[in-house]
Amino acid sequence: MSTTILKRCGTDKTFCKWLISNKELLQNRHYYIDVIIRAYRTKKPLEQLQSYKEAKLRLIHDSSLTPIKELFKGKDLERFFDYMLKQQTNPNTYLDYLKACQNLGLDMTEDKNRFPHDFKRWHDIRIDQYATKKAIEDEEKRKELYIQFAAVAEKYLSLQHAKRSAFVCIIAKSPADLIREGEALHHCVGRMNYDQRMVREESLIFFIRNKQEPDTPFVTVEYSISQKKVLQCYGEHDHKPSSDVLHYVNKVWLPYANKTLKQIAA
Predict the structure, then answer these.
(1) Residue 126 covered by a domain
(2) pLDDT, tens digit, for every residue of 87-113?
(3) Residue 77 vs residues 83, 91, 180, 224, 228: alpha-carbon distances, Å
(4) What is the CATH number of the domain that holds 186?
(5) Owning domain of residue 42
């Protein structure tokens, strides 16, 4: 159905042969037309180029990832995607690392800072350095923060959910809750500025628990109030949750939360 593909087939016999040799791959899933043309020209794997394209589109449409888009442009963007894959991490986790580095005044044009050899190790180091610096700067502000945080949690308390499911959803009620969650699951929710985002009512943090173990950290969710969608949903070490948890979050809790949010606004 693509005139671009048809025109090239009419003028390039080698391209026709390439299509035939990749017939099985092309039939198994949808590929963007520019991905197909580029794979033919560069001889790079279709799957790899498709992954680049999809990741790039996610970056383009997610305004929260703008700092990454500004740092990595052109060929550097593909290098960034390769790095994410090799280090087994994701753009949101890298964004936390990037913000910490920038706050610490590090030069992010240097490869040793942009692409540390062991990302997880240096991510944790930079986050801890950032947290220490932030704690010193904000020591006097913490008392007021706790009061404001509790008020926001109380306002959106009705978004909690514990009906007809193996899971329950609990709202974070204090910055200390975020710290405990982050330490237990080894991610950044307690060490970056998620408490500030909650106080400003930009996003809310919820904890997904097994109903039989409501006090045991399991999965953490960041929910956007303005966009009415889940921004992040990760388990231990930023791992993607199981399909049953994702179904609960996206198909059970999210519709309930959005409906309840309208009632709060009204």
Answers:
(1) no
(2) 888 888 999 999 999 999 999 999 999
(3) 10, 12, 34, 26, 29
(4) 3.40.630
(5) 1-49
